[in-house]
Amino acid sequence: MNEKPVIQLRQLAVAACAALLLGGCASTPRNPDDPLEGYNRAMFSFNEGLDKAVVRPAAQVYEHVAPKPVKIGVGNFFSNLADPWIGLNNMLQGKPGAAFSDWMRFLFNSTWGFLGLLDIASEAGLPKHDEDFGQTLAVWGVGEGAYVVLPFFGPRTVRDAAATPVDMAGDSAWRADHVRTRNSFTALRLTHVRAGLLGADRTLEESTFDKYAYVRDFYLQQRRFKVHDGNPPLEYEDFDAAAPRLGGVAAAAADAAVERLELIDPTAAGPMAAAPVSPQR
Amino acid sequence: MKKILSLFGLLFIFGGAQAAMPAPDELVRAVTGEVLEIVRADDAIRNGDPARIAALVDEKVLPHFNFRRMTMLAVGRDWRQASPAQQDRLVEAFRTLLVRTYSNALTQYRDQTIAFRPLRAAATDTTVQVRTEVQQPGAQPIGIDYMLERSDNGWKVFDVVVAGVSLVTNYRGTFAQEIRSGGIDGLIRSLEARNAELASGAAS
């Protein structure tokens, strides 16, 4: 059972390398976010195999066995251990208000909330934040780099992959000195997180004919959303040629926007910023 | 002068018609509330009875969606190269896929509460974002935002943004890839094949 995904991975990796070489000769442009697509697809299948064989079954057992209050407590406990590091990242991103709020959360929940089993801070009006070192690097101006699927960890950008070890060192749950405690924590947290995603499995499976591409684009969209703290500039273009043309400069600008794709990422200095719109119409 | 007055009269009639159109946030709130109440009361739906779910979605949800606009956004700039007939088939196939996904998600609903965040929009806006939050104990709330566009027969949803991810534009990478390798017809074939496969239950 354990051997199989590895062998599959090797075969896939060989096939992927071949595909990559062939792809290099073909003239079709690849997705600019995903230059490592061949390798990534192979690693994605490997992770999927691992999930199917080990992680999902464990999560299903946990979901069935653990009573609801236990699951809520487990979720709160790990969420609480992560708050000091989230606060530090908020500080590093120049958001001291959010940082102090996170540290207050940790203080409240660790004491009055019985070691974090209860999340009384949220009820007291201190909202939970979602920060990590990858987002801090983004705020500091580090570009995201290519999309890459890591073994075990799953989707990352190169920037976030580089930040992952820092996040692991910073997050208290990973820092327990006692090795067995740490391993149990890790396993429990992973199982808990996976159990929370069980409901989405079928939806994800059925929603598309290319799960790999769907997951990739979902991950990238969501990372960009998080970097902007939930205020991404969503812009919708009108691709319908039948729509009334604005004419002149506006139409040229619209065409330029269409050329540039849909969701405009202000961190990337796109051709929109550089190229002047020429009103030749 | 009479002409101007009658023009004013017309304006008022149109103004009145627009005022009678429910505001976008009220629309989302009403539809969400009604649908979830039905799901909560109906065991067959929560156990995944496809016919019951389809009936509910068809009657209560679909009239408020603009699938043509959704398909256009998912296909992106290649939309312009598609003939009207191809566009119609794309809309039909994508609609089938989205409805199935949405119906699945509905069966997952248990006891989460939906909070509505205040609408920030001017009365003259033709596109608004209605922001909601799905809350459940022990987990972080998940944002679900509905993008709506004003049309002659009410506000229509043209995108759903879950946790910051546009469910419509998220298809763009996949679709562009299909179009690159097989053209618009290739994409239509892939979508229709996927729908057929799901309808026959082979993928579950």
Automatic annotation (TrEMBL), chain A:
<comment type="similarity">
    <text>Belongs to the MlaA family.</text>
</comment>
<dbReference type="InterPro" id="IPR007428">
    <property type="entry name" value="MlaA"/>
</dbReference>
<protein>
    <submittedName>
        <fullName>ABC transporter</fullName>
    </submittedName>
</protein>
<dbReference type="GO" id="GO:0016020">
    <property type="term" value="C:membrane"/>
</dbReference>
<dbReference type="GO" id="GO:0120010">
    <property type="term" value="P:intermembrane phospholipid transfer"/>
</dbReference>
<keyword id="KW-0732">Signal</keyword>
<dbReference type="Pfam" id="PF04333">
    <property type="entry name" value="MlaA"/>
</dbReference>
From TrEMBL, chain B:
<dbReference type="Pfam" id="PF05494">
    <property type="entry name" value="MlaC"/>
</dbReference>
<keyword id="KW-0732">Signal</keyword>
<feature type="signal peptide">
    <location>
        <begin position="1"/>
        <end position="19"/>
    </location>
</feature>
<dbReference type="InterPro" id="IPR008869">
    <property type="entry name" value="MlaC/ttg2D"/>
</dbReference>
<protein>
    <recommendedName>
        <fullName>Toluene tolerance family protein</fullName>
    </recommendedName>
</protein>
